[in-house]
Amino acid sequence: MWKRLFARGGQAPAADGQGAPASYAQWSQCLDALARGDDDENCLQTLYAGSLHWSAGVAPLFVQRLSDEVQRRLNVCADRLQRDLHGSGHRGGQETLVVRAIVQARTQLHFVHRLCLLPTLPPDTRSQLAAEVRKFAERSQHSLEDSARADRSGQLATLLRNNPLTRYDALGQPPDVQPQPAPASSLRKRNILL
Questions:
Q1: DSSP 148-185
Q2: How far apart, in whole angstroms, are the C-alpha atoms of residue 133 and residue 28?
């Protein structure tokens, strides 16, 4: 196995575009590649294309591995968000850094959310895992808003309200559903008085 792994440049065979995982061993290799962060998007596409025969021995092992990966990614997201927000200092002029940290965390949450919705999972497992991501986002948002109350200017609270972590699922619009520009006749002319 190690020879095959190193011969492919360090990637697991299932995450390499060679086919969707069908056995627990192939799923395990994909989850290992996902844990290493080799190529998250390709790993996720491979996982979405996979299938797994749910037997009494395989199901709990697979769900535990996936649940551990979801929890690990949520912890990484929390650590990175905390580090990025402490780096911004929450001072005036640092709004861009705060928003960037929140958007980055939302992107990570969106990936984890998609990981929870693997088609091979039973519906109740998908909903439980997705609910964990939702709870994490809600708790984190609430904690950030509580921390923002110490900012007397109110700017941080406004930034957090306008850029909530809980909107991570809004990132998932299908590529063919793009917002259409408004017709020229419906645009209103704005008059700004100084």
A1: HTT-TT-HHHHHHHHS-GGGGGGG---TT-PPPPPPGG
A2: 22
What are 158's two structure tokens? 């406004």
CA distances from 97 to 32, 34, 53, 92, 102 (A): 32, 28, 46, 11, 9
Q: How far apart are CA 12 and CA 101, in angstroms?
A: 31
For 31-57, what is each residue's pLDDT tens digit?
999 999 888 999 999 999 998 888 888
DSSP state of 135: H
Could you tell me if 157 and 149 are in contact, meaning their C-beta atoms sit under 8 angstroms apart? Answer: yes
Per-residue burial over 12-39, b = 16 or more CB atoms within 10 Å of its CB, e = otherwise = bbbbbeeebbeebebbbbbbbbbeeebb
Which regions in the chain score pLDDT beneath 70?
1-18, 88-93, 172-194
Residue with tokens 């923002």: 148
Which residue, 24, 16, 11, 69, is CA-closest to 45?
A: 16
- Integer Cα distance of 141 and 70 in angstroms: 19
DSSP 16: G
DSSP 9: T
CA angle 136, 141, 142 (to 5 degrees): 100
Q: Residues 6 or more apart from 176 whose CB is under 8 A from it?
A: none
